[in-house]
Model the fold of this input.
Amino acid sequence: DQQVKQNSPSLSVQEGRISILNCDYTNSMFDYFLWYKKYPAEGPTFLISISSIKDKNEDGRFTVFLNKSAKHLSLHIVPSQPGDSAVYFCAASDNAGGTSYGKLTFGQGTILTVHP
Amino acid sequence: DTAVSQTPKYLVTQMGNDKSIKCEQNLGHDTMYWYKQDSKKFLKIMFSYNNKELIINETVPNRFSPKSPDKAHLNLHINSLELGDSAVYFCASSLQPSDQPQHFGDGTRLSIL
Done:
């Protein structure tokens, strides 16, 4: 039972345009969400996060939106750059829960390709 | 300076062998994790230790045994390796349990022949 899903395996955008990566979750206990970026042969690198008490968090070119009622979050990258080409993972955690101990549940990733 | 380092980066071995993967973090974190990325690319939690104490133990075959000699190290020992153990194993750390984000190592690609 996959509690975090990224339904688009890949996304291709032109440099300078907006990239929108989507993520859906099913567990209503999740209260903290993160996006990680991963290059080949490297580990995931933290990008941006959002708590369930917010609906938007912005950091430079990266913005994460959370729609709790729809159990959906998205990552917007504006403007997209060729160096953004990587695999993007959505992850969720039940931080307020007493026994989750920060366990992250990941989606299967979306490969973003930004063309010059 | 590498924050979370894993060795080896690649491990190729025969079915039935026993192998270990080592992880070290120099971030001063109390909590360390092991994740497995399978062929479908999902990263799934296996274990977590906080200050040398096991706090997360997911449904993992008991052929897998984590060991934490101190807060900065979390090793993974695998007995009687099977074909299905082929995967990329990632170590991660965080300041405390439930603290985010977790910081990941570059992974160990384990291939079973």
